[in-house]
Amino acid sequence: MDTKEKLNKLRNYAEALESVVVAFSGGVDSSLVAKVCFDVLGGKAMAVTARSETYPAFEYEEATKIAKEIGISHMTIHTSELNIKGFAENPTNRCYFCKSELFGKLKDIARAQGFKNVVDGANFDDTSEHRPGLEAAKELSVRSPLKDLGFRKSDIREISKYLLLSNWDKPSYACMSSRFPYGEAITEDKLVLVAAAEDYLRSIGLRQFRVRHHDTIARIEILPEDFLKLLQNGKRTELINTFKEIGYKYVTLDVEGYRSGSMNEVLKQ
To answer: In what residue span(s) does the NAD/GMP synthase domain sit (predicted)?
Structure first.
């Protein structure tokens, strides 16, 4: 299937929805869904972004920018994952609680404003990973166009580039709660700590990274080709000093490099 054929399948899917609320984070996946739904349905499509402690300001700014670029109506709501029973304790099904809360709110919005469906940006790659949120989507009848059509991340970037979406090559970004080992309680103070550490890495030009929080230890995951950026020309000392000023006692570089969902590796073991 070439790019146009994939796009046509997605357009046909969107047309069948009739009217839709899109769970919109501003990432590549939800941006493509929002773009195609708006192109096909116009004012019968609306994007909704949830602001919370686990969703950093820079991501919200990006989501706002992309929504304007697309032209879709964009609503912002406020949620608090830390106040959801069971979430802050950080169990292995943590994402189920978060998505249940979010999708429940989006379903309420859809009903109140006369939209027939709610969709998210889950893709087919997600089905082979630990994604408890998929169960929440199923329970609440939230549709996942990209997953249902069998589109992988590579397909999504391909179509997004074809449609000239400015974030087609945006690095993957996961909820801030994914920075903590399962079983370690998530608090607002810890989220602030991790956000500050990741802001520093972003400020020196890194694009794909994670700071995994292990109590007093920061475990930095970056692409192997970026290792030297942190280890030469005085950056190593600057990095150490910055992270210790932020509040970490020990600073480590994970030599295995960045990989999505590395906290799930303990589940496989």
So the answer is: 16-80
What would the mean pLDDT of 198-214 be, rounded to a whole number?
A: 95
Active site residues: 175
Amino acid at 261: G
177: pLDDT strictly greater than 90: yes
pTM given for the model: 0.91
Closest CA to 254 of 209, 206, 222: 222
Domain 3-162 annotated CATH 3.40.50.620: yes
**Under CATH, which number does the domain 176-268 receive?**
3.30.70
- 3-state secondary structure (DSSP) of residue 84: coil
- pLDDT above 60 (res 4): yes
β-partners of residue 117 are 20
Q: What are phi and psi of 241, to 5 degrees?
A: -60, -40
Per-domain boundaries in the chain: 3-162, 176-268
Whole-number Å distance between alpha carbons of 75 and 73: 7
Q: What is the pLDDT of residue 260?
A: 79
For residue 162, give the DSSP letter. Answer: H
Could you tell me the two tokens for 106? Answer: 């989006």
DSSP H or E stretch at residue 48: strand 45-51
Do 3-162 and 176-268 share a fold? no
Residue ranges of the alpha helices (H) in 78-232? 94-113, 133-139, 145-148, 153-162, 188-203, 227-231
